[in-house]
Design brief:
- By secondary structure, this protein is of the alpha/beta class.
- It is 31% helix and 17% strand.
- It contains 9 helices and 8 strands.
- It has helices at residues 16-25, 29-34, 70-90, 97-103, 177-185, 211-224, 241-251, 269-274, 282-297, and strands at 118-125, 131-138, 145-152, 158-160, 189-194, 230-239, 257-263, 312-315.
- Strands 1-2-5-3-6-7 form a 6-stranded mixed β-sheet, with helices on both faces.
Length: 320
Amino acid sequence: CNSRGGGGVGVGFGTKAEGGTMMAKLGLGALGEECGDAAKGGHEPAEEASSAIPFAVVEPGAERLGVCDPQAALRRMGHLRALRARGAKNHDGHWDKAEVDEVMPKEGLFARPQEEPSCVTHMVTMSDGCEIAVDVILPPKSGKVPCVFHQTRYYRQWRLRKMLRPLETFPMDPINLAFKKAMISRGFAIVSMDVRGTGASFGQWTSPCQVKEREDSVEVIDWMERQPWYNGNVFCFGISYDAMAAMFTVSKKHSSVKGCASLFSYFDVWSDLGAPGGVLLHYFFDNWNQLLHALDSGRLIEAPQPLGASFVAGVKGVKG
């Protein structure tokens, strides 16, 4: 993601028109237009020096940094110091962890299956030839079952480091793990995909929730309809970016989609995410840029907290 957070702390833009070009710089211009929130006209605010934290540069031919590399440790420390300094200036982090924890399923509320679910990864070819990585997780001893459809920007499945794999045999997705376990325990299949240009999927990710993502989701549902386990019912699900993707899939009005659970999404890209109250949300964009860069480059050591490269080796690939 090439978006950059410009402007100083406390600089507000009174109207959407005055902030349209700023949203475009943040990589959200195309999304805003399609949601009907992009500004037409208006004047661009004076550009200031970028406040984004620079990423570490790997010299040509240099080895990829390992978790035990002292240079990696020093780089990580410098990165965290920069984030702390940035946060001390902004004070605009507003994530309410207690509120998030309240909606997360608790393992005591659902029975743990006696047998482990099966997980098979497919490369599904889209009409333009692009291959999309899709996990199909099925409950044990299942026949035809309804399906929960999940699309993500943040790896459909994470590859744990070897020593940790025996501790969690369920396909690892730290954001959605509790939800996926609950869904499987209730007899749902789960189809989870890396959106185009992310994770193990091919193609190019050009902007958040690009039009091709929605078209891909329809083609993946069409693919589901040809699977022997499918009973004709799809329920879209997601949190944050994935929730937006779920809602956009619903907007395509596919006959198989019967419902949607969209958690912590937003409907107005400007007032809900870009600049709540008219002030640019530096905290979110700084951390989101860092996270996307780390995921797309595979250098998880550069991701903001709490992502730990000591525990995660990267995205789960596709065999064959």
